[in-house]
Design brief:
Elements (H helix, E strand, L loop, with lengths): L22 E7 L3 H12 L8 E7 L7 H9 L4 E4 L6 H11 L4 E4 L5 E2 L3 H11 L5 E9 L5 E4 L8 E2 L3 H7 L8 E4 H7 L11 H10 L4 E12 L5 H8 L1 H13 L5 H29 L3 H14 L3 H14 L4 H13 L2
Parallel strand pairs: 1-2, 1-4, 2-3, 6-10
Antiparallel strand pairs: 4-9, 5-10, 6-7, 6-9, 8-10
Helix pairs in contact: 1-2, 5-7, 7-9, 9-10, 10-11, 10-12, 11-13
């Protein structure tokens, strides 16, 4: 087996004897039952029936709540509940979702995210009208723990349609949140599951680039998905250790192998620069605001491992003056000295 492919689960085709709905809405959960009610409600409000849509909740052996009770109350037999016999981690839980899916189109909808009315109808039309596309996604809203909107994703183009130069665009910056994207099952069968080397973030970005390297991708301009940001999320925890920045850098290195040879290095360097800038502008400042100086220092170190371009250093300078934490200069000098001697 190719070493790269050994990190991906094999997604076998659905046996011919098994009925195939159009949709598989697969909802991975772990200790997020308080949000699952809203998630399921948003899906069931658009339910076209079991012959057209498979709906399953795949729980990674939650220990702090009871997602099965929520499924039984709201699903009333319509929604299947599957519980992992032990905690397997979110990547393998995703694998279980993909392997248990029967539909031609797979929507991985995290148990704390939601969809708006029209999501399934509009994206299904995109696949029906464009048989060549491998995936389709829509614009999305961000919301907080209480469901309050916090803004929306950038507009990729003015009208719905197949994206141009999408590989080059997604390769340099993560632009999709998982609840907003739908993928043909046949694409996962060809490309495999999510990369098991990731443990906190980056696995989605790597997958979207992997798909974009092989297939056209459709974009729906209407924001029809809701992505929740909350303090106890895996991404927020990983920020304190800078594991998120480390794994984003790893993603850029893996994705470089998918890109056209003539532009691969240029795009990869730009991606690393964007990771570093995001770390400095958002994560470092966030940790400084919280008074977590150890986490801020670690983020700076990891950001500079990604890139120490002029743009990154300018953003670091801005962060220094904005925060008033001038000791950061010592961290920068130390990291730059280390880089020089490597």
């Amino acid at each position: 087996m190719n070493q790269l492919h050994s990190y991906r689960a094999t997604i076998l085709p659905v046996p011919e004897a098994i009925s195939r709905p159009v949709w598989s809405v697969m909802i991975p959960t772990y200790n997020c039952a308080r949000y699952l009610r809203e998630t399921l409600t948003s899906v069931l409000a658009q339910d076209p029936g079991s012959e057209i849509m498979q709906i399953e909740v795949i729980d990674d052996c939650s220990t702090k709540d009871d997602p099965q009770a929520v499924v039984e109350e709201l699903g009333r037999g319509r929604v299947v509940f599957y519980r992992q016999p032990e905690n397997v981690g979110y990547i393998k839980n995703f694998e279980t979702c993909l392997k248990r899916s029967r539909g031609k189109l797979i929507h991985l909808l995290h148990g704390d995210d939601c969809v708006k009315k029209g999501f399934y109808r509009k994206l299904q039309s995109a696949f029906e009208d464009n048989p060549e596309i491998g995936a389709a996604f829509c614009r999305h809203f961000y919301m907080d723990e209480n469901g309050h909107y916090q803004g929306s994703s950038a507009l990729e183009q003015l009208e719905s349609g197949i994206l141009s130069n999408w590989l080059e665009r997604i390769a340099i910056e993560q632009r999709i949140q998982t609840p907003s994207i739908v993928v043909r099952r046949s694409v996962y069968e060809k490309l495999g599951g999510f990369d098991r080397r990731f443990s906190c973030c980056g696995e989605d970005w790597e997958m979207w680039v992997r798909i974009a390297a092989q297939y056209p991708v459709w974009y729906e301009v209407e924001p029809l998905a809701l992505y929740r940001i909350h303090s106890n999320s895996l991404s927020r925890i990983s920020t304190r250790t800078a594991a998120d920045t480390q794994e984003s850098r790893m993603a850029t290195e893996i994705m470089q192998t998918y890109l056209p040879t003539l532009v691969a290095r240029k795009l990869s360097n730009k991606a690393k620069e964007n990771v570093a800038i995001y770390s400095v502008q958002d994560l470092v400042l966030q940790m400084l605001t919280l008074g977590d100086f150890t986490a801020a220092t670690t983020q700076i170190q990891e950001a500079l491992k990604c890139s120490y371009s002029r743009k990154v250093l300018i953003e670091l300078s801005r962060t220094i003056f904005q925060s008033g934490k001038f000791w950061i200069k010592k961290v920068i000098k130390s990291q730059m000295s280390l880089k020089t001697h490597q």
